[in-house]
Amino acid sequence: MNTETKQILTSDGVPLEKSLKKAERRNKIKAFLLVVPLLLFLVITYISPIGELLTRSVDDKMVTNMLPKTFKAMEKWDGQELPSEEVFASFLADYKILVEAKTQGKLGQRLNKEKNGFNSILKKLIRKMKNFEEGNYKEQIISVHKRFEDVSYWRAIKRTAPPYTVAKYLKAVDMYTDENGEIVRVEEGRRIYIKLWLRTLQVALFVTLFTFLMGYPIAHLLATIPMKYSNLLMICVLLPFWTSLLVRTASWMILLQQQGVVNDFFVMIGLVDDDNRPEMMYNIVGTYVAMTQILLPFMVLPLYSVMKTVSPSLMRAGKSLGGTPFVSFWKIYFPLTTSGIGAGSLLVFILAVGYYITPALVGGASGTLISNSIAYHMKQTLDWSFASAMGLMLLVGVMAVYWIYNKLVGIDNIKLG
Amino acid sequence: MALPSYTETRYRIWHYIYLSICTFVFIYLIAPLFVIFPLSFSGDEFLIFSDGMKRLDPDAFSTRWYKDMVWGTKNPWGLAAKNSLIVAFFATIGSVILGTLAALGLSSRHMPYKGIIMAILISPMIVPLIISGVAIFFFMAKVGLAATHTGIILAHIILGTPFVVITVTATLSGFDHSVTRAAASLGSTPYNTFMKITLPLITPGVISGALFAFVTSFDEVVVVLFLAGLENTTIPIQMWIGLREQLSPTILAVATCLIIMSTLILVTAELLRRRSERIRGINR
Questions:
Q1: In 10 A of CB A378, how many CB atoms?
Q2: Which domains are present in chain B?
Q3: pTM for this one?
Q4: B134–A374 C-beta distance less than 8 A
Q5: What pLDDT score was predicted for residue A142?
Q6: Which residue in B121, B239, B269 is closest to A42 by CB distance?
């Protein structure tokens, strides 16, 4: 026997170590190849479009592309006094091209947003510029309207020069860049988005709290009563879980309406007057009631699966050692279930913060959330870059919670049904 | 949950409070589903319990809304049901194939970058639907698949795969890999091993993932709202329109059918779960 051999060889003479590494690598590639189809599919159809929301949300190339010569000429302008003849001439040249292509309307609208009263003087310019003579455009343009002599209008044009803007993000937190280029908040009465963000956060937090307060007792009951009863009661949790979201929302619309069952019941027990039935739908109350019921199973199921693992003898031991039921519960049972509480709360919070359908149907004006605003700007105002900006802000928040969830619970531990 | 006879009064009281809280929560969970059922047989066109219905007067009940659902003129439910089924069917198949393959790869102990890849594959379930809807809409519009069945099916495959990945990975977590090695050592080809050994063992997980994917697609409204044209309307879209514009009891007839369907799915899922636990119990 040759004791000098340092390497063990496989039957075909390759060192075992090398052969093993090769096999490992092959296994790695094999495993990876199985994941590749889904990964590629998701990256192409889903992850990269989400990434594109970023470029879309900061995109402001429209004016940049419409007035190339003007911005080139403006590079030398310091923005203090009225720009030079060259700027006026280039602006007129750019504008003529736009008028010929009939796209000048968009420019007018965009500049009007930047500085009020821009659209009308641009329209006036179209009519007058046909009779312009060669040379000395500065004077001729100013003669169209005296606002062209106002340097702030030219500053407004210059502000639109960069191809990217954070304006949409500022708008989403009720701020904007004013004429001097400073970031300021919009007037008190017109701050709507901050309120919406806060309301979304508030609804998500309270729905999480409510589902916890309601879910904990029933998860405990399900985990402690004999199997044959708990299977039956589990249906009460699982049936809503499997039922269409729209069906559940529809039933809440029926229950909560003014002539609805809940109001009938309140009148019957004398809680409210028949002529004075409270409005429980199309406001924040409806959003809370419906969302809590719809998200409750997502709290109960993780709690239940954790509580199932807590041995009942622990509570008995606590009691036999002199702990009252309350003390044994608080010192023994509750700490053992915190992982379930964490999992359920984070899941409910993540789902609640992006809720759209239910608030849109039962929320009315006071019960809508940020998602509804995103949908509104996607479908009604068609301000897609604003919708993208708000969507990304929401996404960052959700991802932060998802990250915590992953650290605490682990995504492979998500339990379904 | 009988209390021992030595329980002090205050704990006895507390116990009954606890039971009544639980009862209340269970009613809160399940009662809304039962409101739909009687109202869908209402004779009136208002969505409230009429006095006749409260007296259980047989004249106050009718099946006219069910007739309207099936034979009603200009009713959208036929087309919507057809579209919903087509979309859900293909989306389920796509999700199951892609998701099962990925889960098999992810469960291998050789899989590199498991954490980050899992996070990406699960993300469609975590990202708020409205954001998914916006992003998928931009993508489909760019490649010219907006307002097509293909576009909606692809979108639902995206949304359905996380469920398949999760359920199949869960089944595979109790999977004893020595059985596949045994098959290989007995001369089985990898394909044969997969078809004869692995697949039958993970079938409960695959089917339960398929159920999730099917329900997700069948119930999905946010993304379809962005993608669907008039031709691609689905049941959830029609319900959404109906609930926003005019609440007609026909919607409740549809809703009743959907509740019956979800009951069937629940029973199937529950049976599968037990079967899966039994099979895995044998393996241990």
A1: 23
A2: 76-283 (1.10.3720.10)
A3: 0.84
A4: yes
A5: 85
A6: B121
